[in-house]
Amino acid sequence: MSGADRLEMAGQIAEAVRACGAVRVAIAGSLARGDASSAGNERVSLVAAANDEAVLLDALFDWHGSGRQSFDLFEGELGGVPFSIRIVLPERFGALLIWDTGSEGHLALLEKEAARFNLGIDESGIHHGGDLQDTPDEETAYRLLGLRVVPPKERLGTDEITRHRLP
């Protein structure tokens, strides 16, 4: 299946996730980065925000009964295409979308930037000490790290941090 077909499939899954009660949904992973070399081979990844993660997971299971769910992840297959939906609280959406969309190199650069501000960033979000910071959108998350938003297609782990650093 081509990257364009996967992108269309991701859009269909996103609409279903919204219909199940998500307050925000976005395409993540290499598909969001437009990585043509791998988009045809990987699962479709989405991040969805819900005020009650358990309720959304139950609704997703009702929608797609053959899926698998865990604490914050719903996985399934649609039309032969594997997909995963990461469920987060709305106040964590921005940081988790960045985490799930950035390449390994980009995430390593963000970890270094976070350390400059005495912050950490990982799969749970951006934190200061043990306190998770509110990041309802990518702009807020990047701003905490002293950056302008890095577009998904630039999250490659090269020089994007230098180019997007706030003055």
List the helices and strands and how they pair.
Elements: H1 3-19, E1 24-27, H2 29-33, E2 44-49, H3 53-63, E3 68-69, E4 73-78, E5 81-88, H4 93-101, H5 104-116, E6 120-122, E7 125-128, E8 131-132, H6 138-144, H7 160-164
Parallel strand pairs: 2-5
Antiparallel strand pairs: 1-2, 3-4, 4-5, 6-7, 7-8
Helix pairs in contact: 4-6
Quickly describe the structure.
This protein has 167 residues and is α+β, with helices and mostly antiparallel strands. It has helices at 3-19, 29-33, 53-63, 93-101, 104-116, 138-144, 160-164; strands spanning 24-27, 44-49, 68-69, 73-78, 81-88, 120-122, 125-128, 131-132. The chain has two domains: 3-88, Beta Polymerase, domain 2 (2-Layer Sandwich); 103-161, Beta Polymerase, domain 3 (2-Layer Sandwich), CATH 3.30.210.10.
Explain what the structure shows.
The chain has 2 domains: 3-88, Beta Polymerase, domain 2 (2-Layer Sandwich), CATH 3.30.460; 103-161, 2-Layer Sandwich (Beta Polymerase, domain 3). The chain is of the alpha+beta class. Strand 7 and strand 8 (131-132) form a beta hairpin. It has helices spanning 3-19, 29-33, 53-63, 93-101, 104-116, 138-144, 160-164, and strands at residues 24-27, 44-49, 68-69, 73-78, 81-88, 120-122, 125-128, 131-132. The longest helix is centred in the first third of the chain and has 17 residues, at 3-19. The protein is built from 7 helices and 8 strands, in the order H-E-H-E-H-E-E-E-H-H-E-E-E-H-H.
